[in-house]
Amino acid sequence: MAAAGLKTIIALSFVLAIGFLLVILSSALWKNYFPLLVVATYVIAPLPNWICERCTNPDDFMDNAGNAVVDFGRFVTGFLVVMGIALPALLAHCGIIETSAMVMSIIGGLLIYGTIISFTMFFQEEQDF
What we know:
The structure is a single chain. The chain is mostly helical. The protein has helices at 2-28, 37-44, 47-55, 67-93, 99-122. α2 runs parallel beside α5 (99-122) and α3 (47-55) runs antiparallel to α4 (67-93). The mean pLDDT is 86.
C-alpha cells in the first residue's frame, strides 16, 4: 500500500501543479489577475461538504434523518464549482479577460478541483462499525 500511496500522491501533485500553472499563466500572460479568483472558488468548494458531513450524527439509526444538512453541503459545493466555471466565462464575455485566458483558467480550475476530490476519495478513512 505504501508504494501505491506514494505513486498516487506523486500523480495527484503533478496534476495539481499543472492546474495551478494553467491558472497562473492565464493571469500572468495577459497581465490581468482576475482569473486567480477561480483558485479561491475551487479551494473553498470542498469545505461545505466536509463541514456538513461532520455535522450529521453518525450514530443515528435512521438514515433519512440527517440528509438535509448533507444535501445543503452538496448544493453549496455544486454552486461553487459552477461559479468556478461561470466566473471566467462571465469575465471573458464582459471583455475583462481574453478568451484564451478563460479557457486556461477553466481547465486549470477543473484540474485543481478534480485533484482535491481525487485526494479525498483515495485517502478517505474507512469507518468500522
